[in-house]
Design goal:
3 domains; 40% helix; alpha+beta; 6-stranded antiparallel beta sheet; Rossmann fold; Dna Ligase, domain 1; 22 strands; 19 helices; globular
């Protein structure tokens, strides 16, 4: 019996105390910045983090697995980014818009190709095996949510207080501020200015606003002057990028605006883009991260031209862990129409699972309609990977434990594993629009690892 099975048994034997502790955490959430409204909204949107009773507890062996996964991914992605810059044949694989391609080819002014990455995987907690889901660079989020929820669970969760496990939690907020400064120190500008003036920027109505506020406060607490500004409120005078509201000049940008939104609002963000092109500001990350963020990376990783860049070990790694991916055209639509439960369709460039449909979650008639509507558009079809299931409970909706689908997100800061984002859902897609639940992630310390093995 592992630790969480013990916790589940304890909860089932102590339902009232467990439910009460769950409701205390829920109250903590509702009275915290994790309960918020869309920026600029006149009405209360009532957005808040939803969770479950049991946290996620991994072993040190899992942690080592995660480090190795991230190390290999970064090695592969570094090679692809560098090849994209040098080789027009590689650029053709991705088929980016010419304007975006120019932005991607801009030299960022630092050596780290991908400062921030989250690798979302389908992780089998029994075997340690996994398959990739997607790769997030632009707009990677939920670090504040993770840190806050870890605090709430350790303070209020009844099983946590009863068993008092020896665990470690990998903080995500402060390490990112430090990683951001490591990138800054790689730039020529840092030789003249040790501490930059920073702006955190996004399309604020689409942003995870409380997280950006928390990061802004944390930068300032670290002695790094920082403001939060809508990317459309940035201006440029030929020498400096600055806020059209406060007049503050910025040396570095923590870009949370995803590339898709930037391109959709291209003319509204031209001051930022021109300042970046003129090398008057540093952007962390720069647009070369889109090479990895785009869903086209899944197809690219199957191409001979990309595979030729990699070591034999890296090719085997992808062969084992990358879901089969195809362009969704008339031919592939006809191939998969009668086998819906094996496939999932998604846009080439999206985030937060927008426009994603899993065959297991829809009727045969709806599946036919989806394939008809999205074939020969900007969609891909991908092998559907069954999720690892774990028992958990939401005491606001259930009176007993039920199986939940798991998604494991691995944060990578400047090429190093930084922590985990654990999400669960009772449907075939794990995302906020599909009944997602978030739980904090802890790692057993080595002594407790051995105790679990010895049972």
């Amino acid at each position: 019996m592992n630790n969480l099975q013990k916790w589940q048994k304890y909860a089932e034997m102590n339902p009232e105390q467990s439910r009460e502790s769950f409701m205390k955490i829920r109250e903590d959430i509702l009275n915290s910045p994790l309960h918020y409204s869309t920026y600029g909204s006149d009405e209360k949107d009532d957005i808040y983090t939803e969770s479950l009773y049991l946290p996620k507890i991994f072993t040190q062996k899992d942690k080592q697995n995660f480090k190795e996964i991230c190390k290999t991914c970064i090695s592969i992605f570094d090679k692809i980014v560098r090849a994209y810059r040098k080789d027009p044949a590689i650029r053709k694989i991705f088929r980016f818009d010419p304007a975006l391609e120019k932005m991607i080819l801009h030299e960022p002014g630092y050596q780290t190709p991908i400062p921030m990455l989250r690798v979302d995987i389908f992780y089998n907690e029994d075997t340690g095996d996994f398959k990739f889901c997607e790769f997030n660079t632009d707009g990677t989020s939920a670090m504040y949510e993770n840190d806050t929820m870890a605090e709430f669970f350790q303070k209020e969760n009844e099983a946590f207080k009863h068993f008092q496990p020896e665990v470690e939690y990998m903080n995500l907020m402060q390490p990112w501020v430090e990683s951001f400064m490591e990138v800054w120190k790689q730039t020529k500008a840092s030789k003249d200015k040790e501490v930059p003036s920073v702006v955190i920027t996004d399309f604020l109505e689409d942003a995870y606003y409380p997280e950006l506020v928390a990061f802004c406060e944390l930068f300032n607490q670290n002695g790094i002057p920082c403001e939060l500004e809508d990317i459309r409120n940035l201006d440029y005078d030929g020498q400096n990028l600055f806020s059209s509201k406060t007049g503050t000049r910025y040396d570095a940008v923590y870009r949370r605006a995803v590339t898709k939104d930037v391109m959709s609002n291209y003319h509204d963000v031209l001051p930022f883009l021109i300042a970046l092109k003129d090398n008057k500001v540093i952007s962390v990350g720069d647009f070369q991260t889109q090479i990895i963020h785009s869903k086209m990376i899944n197809e690219a990783l199957q191409s001979e031209a990309i595979l030729d860049l990699l070591s034999e070990g890296e090719r085997e790694f992808l062969k084992k862990h990358l879901p089969y991916t195809m362009n969704l055209n008339s031919k592939t639509a006809a191939k998969i129409v009668k086998d819906k439960d094996r496939w999932i369709i998604k846009p080439r460039d999206s985030y937060a699972a927008k426009g994603v449909w899993a065959g297991v979650d829809v009727s045969t008639e709806l599946w036919k309609k989806l394939l008809h509507d999205f074939k020969d558009t900007d969609y891909i079809v991908q092998e559907y990977i069954p999720h690892y299931l774990s028992e958990n409970i939401d005491y606001t909706r259930q009176d007993h434990f039920i199986p939940y689908h798991n998604m494991t997100g691995l944060y990578v800061y400047n090429g190093k594993f930084a922590g985990v984002y654990s999400r669960l859902s009772d449907s075939g897609i794990v995302s906020t629009q599909y009944n997602e639940r978030m739980i904090p992630t802890f790692f057993l310390k080595e002594k407790m690892d051995q105790e679990v093995i010895d049972e």
